[in-house]
Design a protein that fits this description.
Blueprint lengths: L9 H7 L3 H11 L10 E2 L2 E2 L18 E7 L2 E5 L2 E5 L2 E7 L9 E4 L19 H7 L4 E5 L10 H4 L2 E2 L3 H9 L1 H4 L21 H8 L4 E2 L2 H19 L2 E6 L3 H10 L4 E7 L8 E4 L6 E4 L28 E3 L11 E3 L14 E5 L9 H10 L5 E4 L18 H15 L2
Parallel strand pairs: 7-8, 7-11, 11-12, 12-17, 17-18
Antiparallel strand pairs: 1-2, 3-6, 4-5, 6-8, 9-10, 13-14, 15-16
Helix pairs in contact: 1-8, 8-9
């Protein structure tokens, strides 16, 4: 397709050609590399730093620093003009004193942007603030071709966007639609069901943006940008939500030495095929005949052992039975291949009690375990965090969920 000119070869091009001047200049200007905490001054003058600096009192409270930069990207001719394509926006928040050994990179899901992590829809501090308060440096991205990373249909091709009903059904008001068995358990959206007219939903929906219609192209663009970010900032914790797990798996596979942990909050799934919900006893069905994720977890190739030369090398077998309220998983048939790089990365799958993911996240866990990765699993309901849906970072107990994730990190990241 002419409009998707960047799709072919984007993976190699974006890794090979970085706009270093843009990234480095913005990083210096915005202080994305942690600086020393300002020194305390006395009446005799500063203990270090320029002799001409005026003396003054120390800040009454710790000060965090905010910044941003762009990673990846290259110049491309478009008719009679030159544009930049493939760049990814990265926002940073740095506590006055970093006490955690690794930063956290938060990556949003479908139709969203990084604002999901900045604050809740009803105005409370978000996960960024919570993790900064715990001593983490935090980076938040907007996917390539979306939000603050910039949209460009001339280069990236067609865009799509979700309507109110799509989000209400599965993200904010599943109890109203009752399309899967766990939906009625949803109670955590601020001020009642998250439907049009609910103040929190209206704020949330205002944040929705167009996204690339070509799902594989999205991976081709975001994967190299996220890997470039890891190469820039070093060992990192990835926290992905929904669709973003696709990029988290790819980054963990490409840089298992740099991904110190992957917190996959309700990762895109189930393996291989998409499902859609219709309610009733037989509440789900496979969506389409083709594999939605050719390599099980992703559309882009992963490192399997023995090697996989084409998606057809992966034999797919569906379970004959599933527990009540669960999707029958598609897993690997014989011969089963392993994912040795993903097995090196401590990983946890986090699932809410009332989310549509409660029907199939167990399939993702089973696929990873079958491939030798052996992820940890956190069911929020098992930790007395009940009633949550897919957008748990925006719901009434968002701080408690963030604290649970931080506790897991404390026990698993070395």
């Amino acid at each position: 397709m002419a409009g998707n000119g960047i799709a072919n070869g984007a993976l190699a091009a974006l890794l090979a050609v970085q706009v270093s001047a843009v990234a480095a200049g913005a990083a210096r200007a915005q202080g994305t590399v942690p600086a020393e905490v300002p020194v305390q001054r006395s009446a005799q003058g500063p203990s270090q730093g320029p002799a001409s600096a005026p003396a003054g009192p120390a800040p009454a409270e710790p000060v965090t620093r905010a910044g941003y930069f762009y990673i990846g990207g290259r110049y491309q001719k478009l008719g009679d003009k030159t544009v930049m394509v493939g760049q990814m926006f990265v926002q940073s928040r740095t506590p006055a004193r970093i006490t955690q050994p690794y930063p956290v990179v938060m990556v949003h899901g479908l139709a969203q942007t990084g604002v999901n992590f900045l604050a809740t829809a009803d105005g409370r501090p978000g996960w960024v603030q919570r993790f900064v308060e715990k001593g983490f440096q935090v980076y938040v991205v907007d996917q390539v071709g979306r939000g603050r990373s910039g949209t460009n249909p001339e280069v990236y091709g067609p865009y799509d966007r979700l309507g109110t009903r799509s989000l209400e059904r599965t993200h904010t008001a599943p109890e109203v639609y009752d399309l899967y068995p766990q939906a009625k358990l949803h109670t955590r959206w601020p001020d009642g069901p998250g439907v049009q007219g609910n103040a929190g939903f209206d704020q949330f929906f205002a944040s929705q943006v167009p996204f690339l219609a070509n799902s594989q192209q999205t991976e081709e663009l975001v994967d190299p940008a996220l890997v470039a970010l890891l190469d820039k900032i070093g060992p990192t914790i990835l926290l992905t939500h929904g669709q973003a797990a696709l990029f988290g798996w790819a980054a963990s596979d490409a840089r298992p030495d740099l991904v110190k942990a992957h917190v996959a909050v309700e990762p895109s799934g189930p393996p291989f095929f998409d499902v859609q919900f219709r309610g009733g006893k037989d509440f789900w069905e496979k969506s389409g005949d083709g594999r939605a994720r050719a390599y099980g977890l992703t559309r882009m190739p992963l490192t399997f052992a023995p090697p996989v030369k084409a998606p057809e090398d992966l034999v797919v077998a569906q379970q004959t039975k599933a527990a009540d309220g669960q999707v029958r998983c598609w897993l690997q048939g014989e011969p089963v291949r392993t994912l040795p790089n993903l097995a090196k990365v401590p990983t946890v799958l986090v699932t809410a009690e009332a989310s549509f993911h409660a029907t199939y996240d167990s399939c993702t866990a089973a696929f990873l375990t079958q491939a030798g990765a052996k992820p940890d699993v956190i069911q929020l309901a098992d930790r007395d965090l009940r009633g949550n849906g897919h957008m748990m970072m925006l719901e009434t107990n968002s701080d408690a969920v963030a604290d649970l994730l931080a506790t897991w990190l404390a026990g698993r990241v070395k």
